[in-house]
Task: inverse folding
């Protein structure tokens, strides 16, 4: 089949399925669960509540073949320069490859380098946890303030919040990302300078927000401990040693970050130092093992049974054939409350692009507008719109099977709430059914006439459910790798490069121009709206 034929077939199928209630697919396909539910490392995924039937899946698999999605994932694993605009590999998988595996990036062996950095991280974290790393006063360091933004912030923040119970003793980790000084002020507030170490995580070491916060932290150290303090109390994680040294951090205090690992794929690198410090070496290794298990699944499984690839095909179908342009991500776990933020960056910074890697228009839409919050809280916030709003928004539900809070009653309620949402979104409730229920409750006819349409649910709204075995380092690693691979697979379908982010650059350039206009007291080159807003800021500032 040619690309055009596949595309036409999918368009015809979308028209046919648009008129088919989602719940009917279960009657039409008695063994639907065999095809759409998968057992993957650390989790089960259920795609059966997506608006795809077995024929559609075969058509999507033809598209996968044509666009060589699995081939692209394999090239990435081999270390080929899949990040074409920056001319380099995207080798985050090498960071979690099992001991002894020979990994390459752009043709060069990298396993020894990865191992050397990991050994340094482990030594540092073990010493830190044992109280063997002291500040200038001789007191052991007990608090880390991790400064970074985007990919240099979101992963460590998520992993620590997901995996640490707040009462567990250990190294305290605080975060500062925003250039709003409130963030770094709050992070430093109440810290004991003698027992605090600042980690500045920035791949480029050129990110203005991070450098501004790092300067505040350095001044804080100098103010409390004297000008020798930064040398003992500041670490950098970066791939740009020259910039780190120019900032004043010693070469011995730099944990290198590999240039062939993208920021939003860097949780597994030295960016995860504070995760290792907080959770310990064994837990960090388990996080890597979970991701590695997902990598193996992705590389060794045919597309029809490959979790991330199927998820990519279904999301590509939702975006391009059912025209569903948003996606909600709802973890039913308080400790995973930061997952939507993390995935927002992973998905939207990777795939929020309309031009293909060869400069032509992308073959399709690669990214939804992603948003989310933890359930069941989200039910009391934006779920109204998911159920009855005019636009259909597909949902990813993520639940955890193990009751790690030892409260079976509440755990049951939590998971039943999750299952209720996906089921309600699917089955909906017709106006006739609603009216019949109201009649049975002896409501009067005029009320039924006005209220029944309002209490009707269109249903047929798709969702995926992921059930993690537990909220453990292994399962979290597998889950994050699942979404990484799904993201890259969607990019391969659309033909875009998921590893660059030119869109972020323009904002940085314009911000600089505005700051210059303020410094020069000359806003004449700005548009009238920006100039007027600056006037106002100037008069209140
Ligand atoms: O938002 C753009 C971006 O480059 C992200 O991709 C990256 O994760 C973040 O900024 C931080 O970059 P750096 O680690 O270089 O400070």
Result:
């Amino acid at each position: 089949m040619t690309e055009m034929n596949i595309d036409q077939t999918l368009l015809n199928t979308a028209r046919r399925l648009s008129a088919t209630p989602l719940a009917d697919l279960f009657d039409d396909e008695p063994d639907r669960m065999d095809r759409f539910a998968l057992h993957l490392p650390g989790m089960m995924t259920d795609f059966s509540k997506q608006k795809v039937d077995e024929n559609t899946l075969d058509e999507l698999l033809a598209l996968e073949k044509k666009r060589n999605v699995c081939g692209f994932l394999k090239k990435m694993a081999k270390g080929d320069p899949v990040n074409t605009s920056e001319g380099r590999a995207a080798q985050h998988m090498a960071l979690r490859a099992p001991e002894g595996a020979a990994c390459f990036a752009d043709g060069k062996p990298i396993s020894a380098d990865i191992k050397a950095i990991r050994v340094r991280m482990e030594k540092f974290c073990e010493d830190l946890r044992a109280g063997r790393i002291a500040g200038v006063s001789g007191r052991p360091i007990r608090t880390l303030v991790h400064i970074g933004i985007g990919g240099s912030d979101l992963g460590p923040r998520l992993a620590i919040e997901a995996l640490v119970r707040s009462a567990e003793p250990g190294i305290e980790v605080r975060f500062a990302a925003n250039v709003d000084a409130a963030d770094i002020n709050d992070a430093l507030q109440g810290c004991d300078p003698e027992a605090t170490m600042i980690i500045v995580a920035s791949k480029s070491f050129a990110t203005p927000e991070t450098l501004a916060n790092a300067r505040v932290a350095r001044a804080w150290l100098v103010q409390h401990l004297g000008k020798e303090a930064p040398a003992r109390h500041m670490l950098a994680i970066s791939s740009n040693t020259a910039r780190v040294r120019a900032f004043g951090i010693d070469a011995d205090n730099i944990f290198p970050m590999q240039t062939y690992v993208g920021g939003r794929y860097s949780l597994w690198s030295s960016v995860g130092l504070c995760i290792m410090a907080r959770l310990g070496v064994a837990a960090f290794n388990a996080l890597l093992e979970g991701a590695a298990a997902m990598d193996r699944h992705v590389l060794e499984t045919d597309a029809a049974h490959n979790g991330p690839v199927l998820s990519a095909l279904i999301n590509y179908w939702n975006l391009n054939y059912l025209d569903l342009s948003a996606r909600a991500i709802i973890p039913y776990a308080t400790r995973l409350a930061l997952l939507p933020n993390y995935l927002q960056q992973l998905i939207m910074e990777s795939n929020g692009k309309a031009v293909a890697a060869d400069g032509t228009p992308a073959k399709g839409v690669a990214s939804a507008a992603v948003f989310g919050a933890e359930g069941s809280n989200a039910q009391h916030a934006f779920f109204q719109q998911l159920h009855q709003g005019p636009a259909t928004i597909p949902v990813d539900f993520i639940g955890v099977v193990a009751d790690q809070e030892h409260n079976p009653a509440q755990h049951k309620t939590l998971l039943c709430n999750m299952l209720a949402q996906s089921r309600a979104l699917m089955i909906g409730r017709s106006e006739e059914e609603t009216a019949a229920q109201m009649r049975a409750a002896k409501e009067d006819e005029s009320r039924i006439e006005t209220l029944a349409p309002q209490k009707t649910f269109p249903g047929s709204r798709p969702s995926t459910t992921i059930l993690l075995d537990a909220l453990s380092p292994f399962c979290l690693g597998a889950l994050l790798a699942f979404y990484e691979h799904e993201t890259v697979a969607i990019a391969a379908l659309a033909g875009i490069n998921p590893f660059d982010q030119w869109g972020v650059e323009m904002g940085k350039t314009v911000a600089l121009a505005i700051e210059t206009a303020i410094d020069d007291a000359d806003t004449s080159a700005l548009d009238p709206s920006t100039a007027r807003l600056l006037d106002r800021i100037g008069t209140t500032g």
Q: What stands out?
A: The chain has four domains: 1-7+39-67+301-425+463-500, 92-285, 428-460, 502-537. The longest strand covers residues 196-201.
